[in-house]
């Protein structure tokens, strides 16, 4: 069996989707996922990661799902010329072939609105990414301390 | 269409264009331009506002005089900018070690409706121990922001709200004079020297 066929087959078994419906999202690799612990469940949480497209086609990320939060969405922080920061939904995110898109502090983040449980340092939570080709990718995001600055803490 | 009609139309279009250009100029560069928002903060000695710190003490700009200060605005329901700023500042303070023992480091909430004194006390306890959390009434918050020339705005989201706000960190010397601004998420190699300069100025004055 060719390696690519094997990868595609393994992926389709993993997520239970027919290989035919996928075009590109199986080539997405998630690196350095992390998030901060929360105080209670009233405040929204945030998660960060790098999405790397190892394939040859652009891949579009449509949205997120997680049992941790009712409304997960990718938001983008912008700071204007006067130093005023604001946040807005980032919309669809296109990851060009061979490139990476980073969700990092001060840029884009997975905004976890309506937390269902407290985010406890040392635990992880599953975060599923839904791609335009119908593919899904679930990663376990480590929860670091409230004052964490990056994937290393 | 007669030549005369064409001329009339042409003149009308040209004058409309001229008017549009004039309005555009007036709004962008002329007297109709909005006042620039990013002005220098007032000296602390000229500010007037009263708040409560994380320990329940009444505080204000005068509480900061005598030592250099680092002041920034934010809110604890902020998932990205504020924890990042607080973590960045905690990192700078760790780098500076004992040199910043006397520095005032103050986080002022722009969302006092949710950020009560106990909420601020719990939040700041997760970061560097030097960081204070100040909360005031809506009026006092507005007075504080006006003094620092900071701006903030409540923005509705689905059933909740978030706050847009000035994310810069303001540095003042021990006499309350504004020294410099550290922009949001400015790299440590730029931020730490700015803090050192304010600290050095305080040293010179006391020696």
UniProtKB/TrEMBL annotation, chain A:
SUPFAM superfamilies: DR1885-like metal-binding protein. Residues 1-23 form the signal peptide. Keywords: Signal. It comes from the Bacteria. Pfam families: PCuAC (PF04314). This is Copper chaperone PCu(A)C.
Automatic annotation (TrEMBL), chain B:
Keywords: Copper, Disulfide bond, Membrane, Metal-binding, Transmembrane, Transmembrane helix. Disulfide bonds join 78-82. Coiled coil: none annotated. InterPro entries: SCO1/SenC, Thioredoxin-like_sf, Thioredoxin_domain. One of its GO terms (molecular function) is metal ion binding. Belongs to the SCO1/2 family. This is BsSco. The gene is ypmQ_1.
């Amino acid at each position: 069996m060719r390696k690519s066929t094997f990868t595609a087959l393994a992926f389709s078994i993993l997520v239970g989707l027919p290989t035919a419906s996928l075009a590109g999202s199986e080539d997405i690799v998630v690196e350095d996922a992390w998030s901060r612990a929360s105080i209670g469940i009233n405040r929204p949480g945030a998660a960060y990661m790098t999405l790397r497209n190892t394939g040859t086609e652009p891949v579009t990320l449509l949205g997120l799902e997680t049992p941790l939060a009712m409304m997960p969405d990718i938001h983008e922080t912008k700071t204007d010329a006067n130093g005023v920061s604001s946040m807005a939904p980032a919309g669809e995110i296109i990851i060009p072939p061979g490139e990476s898109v980073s969700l990092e502090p001060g840029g884009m983040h997975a905004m976890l609105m309506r937390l269902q449980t407290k985010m406890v340092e040392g635990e992880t939570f599953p975060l599923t990414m839904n791609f335009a080709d119908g593919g899904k990718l679930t990663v376990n995001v480590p929860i670091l301390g409230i004052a964490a600055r990056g994937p290393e803490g | 269409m007669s030549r005369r009609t064409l001329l009339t139309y042409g003149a009308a279009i040209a004058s409309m264009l001229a008017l549009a250009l004039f309005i555009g100029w007036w709004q962008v560069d002329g007297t109709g331009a909005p006042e620039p928002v990013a002005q220098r903060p007032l000296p602390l000695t000229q500010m007037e506002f009263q708040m409560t710190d994380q320990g329940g003490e009444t505080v204000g700009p005068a509480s900061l005089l005598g030592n250099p200060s680092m002041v920034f605005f934010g809110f604890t329901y902020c998932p990205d900018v504020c924890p990042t700023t607080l973590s960045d500042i905690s990192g700078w303070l760790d780098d500076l070690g004992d040199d910043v023992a006397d520095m005032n480091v103050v986080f002022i909430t722009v969302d006092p409706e949710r950020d009560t004194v106990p909420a601020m006390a719990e939040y700041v306890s997760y970061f560097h121990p030097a960081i204070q959390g100040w909360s005031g009434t809506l009026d006092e918050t507005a007075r504080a922001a006006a003094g620092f020339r900071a701006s903030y705005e409540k923005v509705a989201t689905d059933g909740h709200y978030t706050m847009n706000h000035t994310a810069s960190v303001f540095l003042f010397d021990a006499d309350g004079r504004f020294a410099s601004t550290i922009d949001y998420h400015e790299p440590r190699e730029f931020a730490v020297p700015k803090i050192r300069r304010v600290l050095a100025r305080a040293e010179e004055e006391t020696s």
